[in-house]
Amino acid sequence: MYFDSLHAALAMEGHGPFVWGAYAITALVLLTLLVSPVLRARRLRRELAGDIRRREAAAGEGGYASRT
Amino acid sequence: MWSFFHKLGSPPWLYRITGSILRWLLPLTLIALAVGAVWGLLFTAPDFRQGNSYRIIYIHVPSAVVALAGYYVMAFAGAISLIWKMKMADVAMKSCAPVGAALTFIALVTGAIWGKPTWGTWWVWDARITSMLILLFLYLGVIALYEAFDNKEAAGKACAVLTLVGTVNIPIIYKSVDWWYSLHQPASIKFTGESSIDPSMLYPLLLMIGSFYALFTCALLMNMRLEILRRESRTGWVRKLVGA
């Protein structure tokens, strides 16, 4: 490691807030970029599954009604 | 060869193959990003002129490079969807925009943060920075334009045209540091001739550029899979997929 201590690595001779801040913002944006499609896909799949179940239920009732 | 193109146009095939690519590419990308970031932050010597603030290079340059490359991908997909009306090319074009916008945003923000301790200012209206800001607006413009249309076919066409027109901006960004006097330093890595960067700094930078390319690919594929599911929601294979 280039720095002697954790403290020196955080301070970076005065540039610490800039460097760590830039990396923190980048990490946050990249994380959002990767997590958001996963969450949206999960929600979409749940909605679609719900749709199918409702439609099947409706079709089942309809079929029963038509037979009687 | 042609059967490959036919497969590329098939949503269930594309959905399946992107899923198996992501399964190994995504963890690999995250590991490479973590290694590259720790390497650049803690294990390289500071720049002899700029000191430690230069460490921002390991996220600033990769995000800017890939933001530009991403625009090529988007324009290429837009051209294909416009010429051959390939649905999956339209999906790819639409999926590029948020990823490119995020990377351009990172390049601009990290550039501003780098500029403060190095040049003493967060922002200047110089050619490189302004043309990057235009790139961000182009990406955001594609997103907004897509949402503005109810008819998604017309939306795809309009976005493809906007994307292709915006391609004019790309060589301007590349050449801006040579054409105009600028605060922004010229490129340190050159494919022809000697790079003006020490190998100990170059290797982590190359690793980070590669990781950002991989990250772009992952995010693009994930967005494409979501869009495919949405568009194909009434088909048999999607019903089977979500029902299972």
Coarse structural class of chain B? mainly alpha
Helix-residue proportion of chain A:
over 70%
Q: How would you describe the oligomerization state of the chains in this entry?
A: heterodimer
The number of helices of chain A is 2
Helix and strand content put the structural class of chain A at mainly alpha
The whole-number mean of residue pLDDT values of chain A reads: 85
Say what the CATH topology of chain B is: Four Helix Bundle (Hemerythrin (Met), subunit A)
Number of strands of chain A: 0
Write a structural description:
The complex is a heterodimer of chains A (68) and B (244). Chain A has 68 residues and is mainly α. The model of chain A has no long low-confidence stretch (mean pLDDT 85). Chain B has 244 residues and is an all-alpha fold. Chain B has a single domain, classed as Four Helix Bundle (Hemerythrin (Met), subunit A), CATH 1.20.120. Chain B is globular and about 60 Å long. The mean pLDDT of chain B is 89. At the A-B interface, helix 2 of A face helix 2, helix 3, helix 4, helix 8 and helix 9 of B.
What key phrases describe this protein's structure?
heterodimer, A: about 70 residues, mainly alpha, 2 helices, B: about 240 residues, Four Helix Bundle (Hemerythrin (Met), subunit A), 9 helices, about 75% helix, globular
